[in-house]
Amino acid sequence: MSQPEVVVRPARVADTKPILTLVNELALRQIMLPRSPASVIENIRDFLVAEVDGQLAGCGALAITWTDLGEVRSLAVHPDHQKLGLGRALVDALVADAERLGLPQLFAFTYVPDFFQKMGFAICQHEDLPHKVFNDCMHCPKFLACDEIAMSRVLDASAGPEQTFGKPQRAIPLPQRTAAFVPSQESAVSARPVQATGDSGPSRPNPPAS
Ligand SMILES: CC(C)(COP(=O)(O)OP(=O)(O)OC[C@H]1O[C@@H](n2cnc3c(N)ncnc32)[C@H](O)[C@@H]1OP(=O)(O)O)[C@@H](O)C(=O)NCCC(=O)NCCS
């Protein structure tokens, strides 16, 4: 009997339906989180798929969390094809993609820590991943009772702090108002909106721009 042909390739929009079927059937068994159609379609460029003889048998996504961090998401292999190396092939390809992008660290939230350990990940604390906690976890129904295990893998131990692009709350420099855009006191007074109460008292200038 000939060996099945296994191909790992970037997902296409036509893969949306089989990805959703695979992920959400496994999610029904409470072993991974479900995905909505929109979240797969909008993020289809994050996904890789594994095909066995032309049929989609596995998928996984690399979501960029920050300049120094990426997440392995929605990793799933159809039960008929598990333990045949597809999961490893998908993780290897996602890692290669992360390295191409220059991401020095990956993480995953998972119920299968032993598998991820074999993929070079080690258990970490949710608190070690503040971007994830602030972006996604806060909106998750399981936020106060999360039973997923956080795991991370360093891809480039030499990456320095310059790669982190600031801490989350200081990520984007706030625009500084230049003199040309700071309204003069006169125009600030004339621009003061009319108060709906009908108060016709003396106008006060707007507070100075900080
Ligand atoms: C976890 C999953 C992706 C693994 O895929 P897979 O194709 O079966 O994995 P592979 O065959 O590539 O296995 C690679 C190695 O991990 C081991 N492994 C696979 N599944 C494992 C598990 N559940 N627990 C412990 N080890 C596991 C394999 O034995 C193999 O070890 P080896 O290299 O020493 O021989 C797959 O079982 C799956 O889709 N599970 C349901 C969904 C899920 O839990 N996804 C993870 C969401 S974060």
Output the keywords:
single chain; 210 residues; alpha+beta; Aminopeptidase; 7-stranded mixed sheet; 6 helices; 7 strands; 22% strand; globular; disordered C terminus; binds coenzyme A
Characterization of this structure:
This protein has helices at 16-28, 37-42, 86-101, 113-118, 130-135, 185-190, and strands at residues 6-10, 47-52, 55-66, 69-77, 105-110, 122-123, 149-154. The chain is an alpha+beta fold and 210 residues long. The chain has one domain (6-169): Gcn5-related N-acetyltransferase (GNAT) (Aminopeptidase, 3-Layer(aba) Sandwich), CATH 3.40.630. The chain has a seven-stranded mixed sheet with strand order 1-2-3-4-5-7-6. The radius of gyration is 24 Å and the shape is globular. The termini are far apart. Residues 187-210 have low confidence and may be disordered. The structure holds coenzyme A (COA). Coenzyme A is lined by residues 26, 31-32, 75-77, 82-88, 108, 110-112, 114-115, 118. The site of coenzyme A has 20 residues, from β4, α3, β5 and α4.
The low-confidence parts are: 187-210
Based on CA atoms alone, the radius of gyration comes out at: 24 Å
Bound molecules: coenzyme A
Shape: globular
CATH topology: Aminopeptidase
| Major sheet strand order | 1-2-3-4-5-7-6
Proportion in helices? 25-40%
How many strands appear in the DSSP assignment? 7
**Number of self-contained structural domains:** 1
Strand and helix layout:
Elements: E1 6-10, H1 16-28, H2 37-42, E2 47-52, E3 55-66, E4 69-77, H3 86-101, E5 105-110, H4 113-118, E6 122-123, H5 130-135, E7 149-154, H6 185-190
Parallel strand pairs: 4-5
Antiparallel strand pairs: 1-2, 2-3, 3-4, 5-7, 6-7
The chain binds coenzyme A.
Coenzyme A binds at residues 26, 31-32, 75-77, 82-88, 108, 110-112, 114-115, 118.
